[in-house]
Design brief:
The chain is α/β, with parallel strands linked by helices. The chain is built from 24 helices and 26 strands. It is found in: Mitochondrion matrix.
Length: about 775
């Protein structure tokens, strides 16, 4: 007998509970007021992209047996269940309508029955055979239906106790295949579920395994209206379509759908699965527990997708991700396999990563003059196609201004001009000229023994991911450096520069086509979130962010197993010493702060020696800043010297990125160094003085990537350093520091050339001895 008709009186009784006069948009079930969210959408077509999943209103979460049960298949995984309940409760409290299709009754019942059998046997054997026979007790094979009957009540009690912690009510519904095939029972089920959802109650559905008949033959997955409920995968799919749900989340013990059985050497996780792709997948065996395997899940998922419900299959057992897997999926993050009916026009980002790696290896195998030819060609295209580039950039500027989403400093970074393009072309030609011996250069030679020579040579890092905001001029610069260093490249630009990036990437690929390596540089145009890109540790070898400090921090936080090169902030200092030249001070400060205040190498904090206060030099500095309309913030010590001071700085660790700066007072060069170490970002710091001894002390003791004497902070730049361009400025302690050009995009490998050498020949009684002689390096190509 189905339990559905029995639930209807309970539902009707609950519906009569008064709402205490509360507004109709507020629910008061589960003893707390509940404010709903406008999440509704017309059902009929599934979501086309992951980013749309955040609009899902009605969601079914299917918990596989491997998710719910412990590894010993006897008892429940309480920690995982508690986490799942917490996530479902969170989404329910956002105004979504959550339903759970759960396994676990058999496992829970098995645990209870084993306990009862052991207890009964131990009493009998203690009475008849003595304690020494207890260890020989055998537990009989338990019938699954009996286990289900014994476990259903306990499983539901557990769910109720967990949901009560979040003031949410749960209701149990047991179904069989007959409940879907009998029209009256189907209507009862539908009505019960809708009424429960209306009252903010989470329905917990399971097949009634205590009485469930075997599945009907030849009736499985024959059409939208027919699916045999033979396991919880098919139950979840049938329920999702019946209830017109927006999203079905199927949690199992694998990360998602792979193109071959997980664990095999070439198995790759499929990010998006499309109907018709089944031929490209080889299914393995089912999980350690449960009725179905991945093939059953895919069939059920495709059936639900055909019925208008989006589906994601993901891992609900992994300890690092299971604590937020459901909420991550709803937020649109790249978790598991997303089933979609809409195929993108271009390649996926995973395919682009593979294309970039293959193209990069081909690029690295070219002759140095061939790589240089590609860069020269790109430089020519920047000037030859100037009008088309500026027209595309004008579209970006107009759209940004109309939407009002960019601050003035970012608009300046977005803007291209004829002079910028000319400077870009000059920089690219410098890169081409200096790249002749970058890849494959021998940097060390050692004779290990007779006829056994070792070389250390430069090689590309692999595939670079460069994420940049607002600055389309970054694209050709980084592309040229990648070509020169033989690296594959993935580029992710901001939406605000879409038109500019598109044409610049097109020109880059045109230049690469000169030697057939068009795929080495890829522009990511799909809806990939930056956080998702940072997880592609098998495709990407180095991430280089170019943008705001917030962008860099977010990427450093999101990167999973991939090194990040860059700096999170550009808090640059200029220290004016007592022996500073009057003529140099205002020129250097003006250039450092006012030439391009949005740059990461612009002055942010001006340190002035205490003896210079109330001197003509100090007055000149203040007058110049006022003329340039620089807003001044006073540091704590500087403010203490003034009767009427400018606004006191909120933090000495501030990157203004505009015509603003902080002024602070120090008592000595040592105090200036200490201030920089405490509040700086290890980017670029300057001393202005005529005292060489003081200058050298500053240069040697300031621990920053760039330290200058009597020169503007703005010189901290790859082009001005003669590197041609830079992929960014690194404040890291390892590999590369400061402006990063070609050298920073290379690593090394070791080449050993021998003649039948084995290590045993060098043992105590062996015939050979180590020489370890340094050999001269081959002459570098300076042409």
């Amino acid at each position: 007998m189905s339990i559905i008709p029995l639930l209807l009186p309970l539902v009707e009784q609950c519906a009569k509970v008064p709402n205490s006069g509360m507004n109709e948009s507020i629910r008061c079930w589960s003893n707390i007021p509940f404010i709903t969210m406008p999440l509704s959408r017309a059902h009929g077509k599934s979501f086309a992209h992951r980013s749309e999943l955040k609009h899902a209103k009605r969601i079914v979460v299917k918990l596989g047996s491997a998710v719910v049960t412990r590894g010993d298949e006897c008892g429940l995984a309480l920690g995982r269940l508690a986490s799942i309940v917490e996530q479902v409760s969170m989404l329910q409290n956002q105004g979504r309508e959550m339903m759970i299709v759960t396994s676990g009754a058999v496992a829970f019942g098995k645990q209870r029955l084993r306990h009862e059998i052991l207890l009964s046997q131990s009493v009998r054997q203690a009475l008849h055979s003595g304690q020494n026979q207890l260890k020989d007790m055998a537990i009989p094979v338990l019938e699954a239906r009996a286990c289900a009957a014994a476990g259903q009540s306990g499983l539901m009690a557990l769910y109720e106790a967990m949901f009560t912690q979040y003031s949410i009510c749960a209701a149990q519904i047991l179904v069989t295949n007959l409940d879907f095939h009998d029209e009256q029972k189907r209507r009862n089920l539908n009505g019960t579920l809708h009424e429960l959802l209306r009252m903010n109650i989470v329905p917990i559905i399971n097949t009634n395994d205590a009485v469930v008949p075997p599945p009907e033959p030849n009736s499985d997955l024959q059409g939208v209206n027919v699916i045999s409920v033979k396991d919880n995968d098919s139950l979840a799919a049938r329920l999702a379509v019946e209830m017109k749900t927006d999203l079905l989340i199927v949690l199992s013990d694998v990360e998602g759908l792979f193109d071959s059985p997980p664990g095999s050497d070439d198995a790759k996780l499929i990010d998006i699965f499309y109907p018709g792709d089944q031929q490209s997948v080889t299914f393995g065996t089912k999980s350690r527990v449960g009725m179905g395997g991945m093939e059953a899940k895919v069939k059920a998922a495709l059936w639900a997708l055909q019925g208008g419900t989006s589906v994601v299959i993901a891992n609900g057992t992994h300890p690092k991700i299971s604590g937020h897997v459901i909420t991550d999926i709803v937020e649109g993050k790249k978790v598991g396999t997303f089933f979609s009916e809409v195929k993108p026009a271009g390649p996926t980002v995973e395919q682009q990563g593979e294309m970039a790696r293959a193209g990069g290896r081909t690029l690295a195998a070219l002759q140095p003059e061939q790589r240089a030819e590609i860069i020269y060609r790109l430089a020519d295209l920047l000037t030859d196609q100037r009008e088309e580039i500026l027209l595309a950039n004008k579209k970006d500027l107009e759209e940004a201004e109309n939407k009002g989403r960019l601050a003035v400093p970012l608009l300046k970074r977005l803007s291209l001009s004829t002079s910028k393009l000319n400077s870009l072309a000059i920089g690219l030609r410098q890169i081409a000229a200096s790249s002749q011996d970058s890849v494959g250069r021998v940097i060390r030679r050692t004779r290990i023994a007779k006829d056994l020579d070792l070389e250390q040579v430069t090689v590309p890092i692999g595939v670079l991911l460069v994420i940049f905001e607002s600055r389309p001029d970054c694209l050709p610069q980084v592309s040229a450096l990648a070509v020169a260093s033989g690296n594959g490249l993935l580029l992710k630009g901001g939406k605000e520069a879409a038109h500019s990036n598109q044409i610049l990437h097109h020109l880059t690929q045109e230049a690469l086509s000169v030697h057939g390596v068009k795929d080495a540089v890829q522009l990511v145009n799909t809806r990939e979130e930056v956080e998702d890109l940072c997880r592609l540790d098998k495709l990407i070898d180095l991430i280089i962010p170019r943008g705001s400090s917030q962008l860099v921090r977010n990427i450093q936080k999101s990167a999973k197993g991939i090194p990040v090169m860059g700096h999170s902030e550009g808090i640059c200092h200029v220290y004016v010493d007592t022996d500073a030249s009057v003529e140099k001070v205002t020129r250097i400060i003006r250039d450092s702060k006012c030439e391009y205040p949005a740059a990461c190498n612009a002055l942010e904090t001006l340190l002035i020696h205490r003896d210079l206060l109330r001197t003509p030099l100090f007055d000149q500095i203040i007058d110049m800043l006022r003329v340039e309309q620089v807003k001044i913030h006073a540091g704590p010590k500087f403010a203490s010297y003034l009767t009427f001071s400018p606004s006191e700085v909120k933090s000495l660790r501030t990157e203004y990125g505009d015509l603003e700066c902080c002024i602070e007072v120090v008592d000595s060069v040592q105090e200036a160094v200490d201030h920089i170490h405490k509040y700086g970002s290890s980017h670029t710091d300057v001393i202005i003085t005529e005292n060489e001894k003081t200058a050298e002390f500053f240069l040697q003791h300031v621990d920053s990537a760039c330290v200058f004497w009597n020169a503007s902070t703005r010189f901290s730049d790859g082009y001005r350093f003669g590197l041609g361009a830079e992929v960014g400025i690194s404040t890291s302690r390892i590999h590369a520091r400061g402006p990063v050009g070609i050298e920073g995009l290379l690593t090394t490998k070791w080449l050993l050339r021998g003649n039948n050498h084995v290590v045993s020949d060098f043992s105590e009684h062996g015939s050979m001895k180590y020489l370890h002689e340094s050999l001269p390096l081959p002459q570098r190509n300076t042409n």
